[in-house]
Design a protein that fits this description.
Number of strands: 9
Largest sheet: 7 strands, parallel
Structural class: alpha/beta
Strand content: 25-35%
Number of domains: 1
Order of helices and strands: EHEHEHEHEEEEHE
CATH topology: Rossmann fold
CATH superfamily: NAD(P)-binding Rossmann-like Domain
CATH class: Alpha Beta
Radius of gyration: 16 Å
Helix content: 25-40%
CATH architecture: 3-Layer(aba) Sandwich
Length: 184
């Protein structure tokens, strides 16, 4: 069984947590509030025994690092991380990488989920350990006949899941540009 950490597990990534559980992953979910994590626990149904949740702000990197270390000590090294991080992501990703590196020397996968504006800049892998395979997943929009719309939660979860099976360093789910076509 593989261990997956989901940062930002409330909202649209709660569906990804359920998908990972369906695929027999042990899932460790981090969100800011217990209320959203309780909804996730309920939505996990009988698979909730493979779901471990923690309410914390992932920007508190000291606390996040201690929790990741404890989680790996109790359950084994993390194999995959799905991270939807608002704001400055560098320190969060560095903390995750450092703590995983402390518990394993074999490759692991980081799926960094970002908004459509990430596609406006060239791909730039953050400075992470050499055992970390990094993938940027850019969430775009859908262009319909005369308008565009943001992706649905189902499209986001399906797109992230499909991206996680790709070797591409950057995957765009939907369309990311041009910027003037993005929904307002």
């Amino acid at each position: 069984m593989q261990n997956a950490l989901v940062l930002g597990a409330s909202g649209m990534l709660s569906g990804l947590c359920v998908r990972l559980l369906d695929q027999q992953f042990q899932v460790f979910a981090v969100a800011r509030t217990w209320e959203s994590l309780e909804r996730l626990q309920t939505g996990a149904g009988p698979q909730a025994d493979r779901l471990t949740t923690m309410a914390l702000d992932y920007h508190d990197t000291e606390r996040l690092g201690r929790w990741i270390a404890h989680t790996q000590l109790m359950h084994g090294p993390l194999d995959r991380v799905f991270a939807w991080i608002h704001g400055e992501f560098g320190p969060v990703l560095e903390t995750v990488d450092r703590e995983i590196y402390a518990y394993r020397r074999s490759p692991w996968m980081l799926h960094h989920i970002r908004g459509s504006r990430a596609a406006d800049t060239p791909f730039d892998r953050p400075p992470l350990s050499t055992i970390c395979t990094y993938q940027e997943v850019v969430l775009g929009f859908i262009q319909e006949e005369r308008h565009s719309r943001w992706l649905t939660v189902e499209e986001i979860v399906g797109g992230i899941w499909q991206a996680s099976h790709s070797e591409a360093e950057r995957v765009v789910v939907g369309e990311a540009g041009p910027p003037e076509l993005r929904p307002r």
